[in-house]
Amino acid sequence: MVESVLHFFQEFIQDPRWITFLLAMTPIGELRVALPWGMTFGEMPWYQAYAWAVAGNFIISIPIVLLLGPVSKFLMRWPMGEKFFNWLFTRTRRKGKMIETWEFLGLVVFVGIPLPVTGAWTGAAAAFLFGLSYRKSFLAIITGLLMSATIVTIITTTGVKVLG
């Protein structure tokens, strides 16, 4: 899936900054894909890839945090929407025990550890589910993104093997 999105971006967008930005907005790739792509294939300096990836990943979290409540409420009026949001919210609650316990700091750590199923997308959903204010949500998400981007940048620039 990430490969097809990447191919689409590379086909129609030539500027590596915008590809990095858009890759960071995707729900599966986020910073974990955008930063390494920007630094390697996009041939961007680490600080430029870092800035574009964090910006893209943060910007997508804004409508998620602001609109998830009204959109879910509207779509849950139909069986398919109710089934999807029940699945999403159950999954997020199960993964978000740390956020439920530590609230703001839990959300920072949840977003900040660059693992699958963590990041701005899930963090924004968790912020809504656990009732964090918009202000706390956005501050925790940007702090977590800076933490995650720093980790991914260090791993990418030093060539540290994470798995295997």
Distance between the termini: 23 Å
Which descriptor suits the 3D outline? globular
How many structural domains can be distinguished in the coordinates? 1
- What share of the residues lie within helices? over 70%
Count of alpha and pi helical runs: 9
Helix and strand pattern:
HHHHHHHHH
Radius of gyration, taken over Cα atoms and rounded to an integer in Å: 16 Å
Amount of beta strand: under 5%
Q: What is the β-strand count?
A: 0
Runs with pLDDT <50, length 5+? none
Mean pLDDT: 91
Give a structural overview.
- The chain has 164 residues and is mostly helical.
- It has one domain (2-158).
- Helix content is 79%, strand content 0%.
- It contains 9 helices and no strands.
- It has helices at 2-12, 16-25, 30-40, 46-75, 79-95, 97-102, 104-112, 120-129, 134-158.
- α1 (2-12) packs antiparallel against α2, α3 (30-40) packs antiparallel against α4 (46-75) and α4 runs antiparallel to α9.
- The radius of gyration is 16 Å and the shape is globular.
- It starts with a helix and ends in a 6-residue tail after the last helix.
- The relative contact order is 0.13.
- The mean pLDDT is 91.
